[in-house]
Task: structure prediction
Amino acid sequence: MADGSRSHFYLILLSVLAVCSASYFAFTGITTYFRRRQIKKQNGCEPPPRYPHGLLGLDFIRATLREAERKKMLDTSRARFDKMGGTYSATLSLQPMIFTHEPDNIKTVLSIKFKDYNLGNRKNSLGPLLGEGIFTTSGEHWHSSRSMIRPNFARDQVADLGAFERHFKLMLRKIPRDGSTVNLQDLFFLMTIDSATEFLFGESVHALKADASTTNGFAEAFNHAQNMAARRIRAGKFAVFFHGKGETEAIKFCHEFVDQFVDQAVEYRRKLDEEDKGAVDEKYVFLYELAKTTKDKKRLRDELFNVLLAGRDTTASLLSNMFFEIAKRPDIWEKLQAEVAQLNGEIPSYETLRNMKYLKYCMNESLRIHPVVPLNSRLAVKDTVLPRGGGADGKSPVFVEKGALVSYSVYSMHHRKDIYGPDADEFRPERWEALRPSWEYLPFNGGPRICLGQQYALTEAGFVTTRILQEFKGIESRDPGPWVESLSLTLSSHGGTNVSLTPR
Ligand code: HEM
Result:
C-alpha cells in the first residue's frame, strides 16, 4: 500500500473506532440513566441534602484534616450532621459520598443489603502489612476466612483466663504503689499485644517484660507499620501513592518474626497428618487450629495479622477510654468496688464476669461515648437504595449509585440526643439499667461482618478492670482536662490515661 493510502486507511480506522466508542458510551450512559431513573421512581427516592463544598471538595477535605490535627475531627463531623440532617451527600476528590448516622441506613448497608457493598479501599491501605485475610477482603475470600477463623472464638477458648492473669501480673509490676502518676494507656497497649500474641501465635512477644535492651522489637515494628497504614487510610483513593518512612523495614521485620511461628504450625500440621500424635503438643493455639485447615504459609500469616490488628488496639483502647472516665468519678469507682467486693478476693472466672452488671454497664457506656471504631465506610458495588435521608424532611429513600462510598459515623449516632436523651454526652453507666438499643448502638458492627472477638474483648477488659479494682482501693485522675480524641486505626485518649492508684 502506498504511504498516502496507508495513512488514509488508518484515519478511517481511527474514525470508526472513535464513533464506535462514542456510541458505546452514549448507549451505556442512556441505558444507565433510564435504569437509575426507574430504580429511583420505584423506590420513591429523593436526593439527600448536598453539602455546600467547593471544587473537588478540597475545602471540605482541608477542613477535615485541620480538625484531625486539632483532635476535633469527630465532633466536627457530628456538627455537620447537626447542620445537614442525618444523611447528606458530597463529592470529594471526584468520589461520590453519602454521609449518614441513621440506624436504619447503617443496618441496610451492613446487613439487609450486605451484598450491595464491599470494603472499598481497605486492601490498598492495609494490604502491605495484612495481605489478604478476614479484615481486608470481601466476597468469596472473606467468606472462606470467616469460616476458617470463626470456630476459634468458641466459648472454651475465650473463657481461658489463665493467660490474662499472667499478663496482668506483669503489668501490675509496672504500676507504682507510692501514689506517683502512671499512664495506664501505655500499659494496656503492652498488655494486649502480649495477650493477643500468646492467643494467636502460641507465644507472647512479652512487650511488658521488655526494657530497652531486651525488647525483641515486634511491638514497636507492628505499631509503626500500623500507624503508616492508618495514614494511608486517610489518603483514600490515593493510598497506593503513600509510603511511610521506615514502613518497608517494619513490615519485613513483622513478617519474618511471625513466619517463625507459621513454620512451627505447618510442622505441627505435618506431624498430625503423619498421625504422629504423640509428638503433637495438645495446648490450644489459634494458629495451630488454622493450620489444620490450610498449609499455605502466606495465607496463615495473613490471617494472623488480620486478627492481631482487629483485636489488639481495640481492647486496649476500650480500657484506656473507660479508665480515663472512671478515674474522674469517685461515685462510679465506689460502685465498681462494691460489685468487685462480692468476689471476696477470688480471681474472676468467665461466669463471675458475666454476672457483674455494673462493670458491664461501664464497658457499654465507654463504647458508646468513645466507640473504638468511630467511623467506617462501605463502597456500593451496584446501584442500590438507602431507606432514609432523602427529601425535605429526610424521610424518603436515597438512591446510591454504584461506586459511591457510604461513610457512617457510629460516634455521631452514639451521641444523638434524640436517641440517648439530653445527657447523651455524659458518661453515665446507670443509663444501661433501662437501655436495650438495637442498631442505634454499634460498637462491634452488625450483620455478617460483626466482630468475631466481642466476647474475647469484653472478657479481657472486664478481667483487667476487676483485677485492678482488687489490687487498688483508690484511683485519682492526673489528667487535668477532658478526654481528647486520638484517632489512628482505633480511638483512644490523646493525652493517655494518667492516674495515681492507692494499693490496699
Ligand atoms: C473493644 C474491642 C473491640 C471492638 C470495639 C471491636 C470492633 C470491631 C468492629 C467495629 C469490627 C467491624 C469492622 C468492619 O467490618 O469494618 C470488627 C471486626 C472484627 N473484629 Fe473486632 N473489635 C474488638 C475486639 C476484637 C478482638 C479482641 C478480636 C480478636 C481477638 C477481634 C476480631 C475481629 C475480627 C476478626 C473482625 C473482622 C470480622 C469480619 O470482617 O468478618 N475484635 N471489630
Notes: The longest helix spans residues 3-43. The chain has a mean pLDDT of 92.
